[in-house]
Specification:
Number of domains: 1
Radius of gyration: 13 Å
Structural class: mainly beta
Order of helices and strands: EEEEH
Distance between the termini: 16 Å
Length: about 60
Amino acid sequence: MEYAIGTQYTPRGKNKTLCTVTDILKTYNMRGELVHTRYVATHYFLGQLGIDYDVVAPTIARGLK
């Protein structure tokens, strides 16, 4: 399942900050087959914007409300 830009989720763990999907990164092989789908997510931590460039779909799925 592909998540849309703007999807908000709360990841598991100690730091439960609200994250927002801001971009989708897709990797294709030489045959044109989709190999990886990763998401870019942002969150605020201590007043600063944090960016995670390697978020996978199951992380988002577990954190949806």
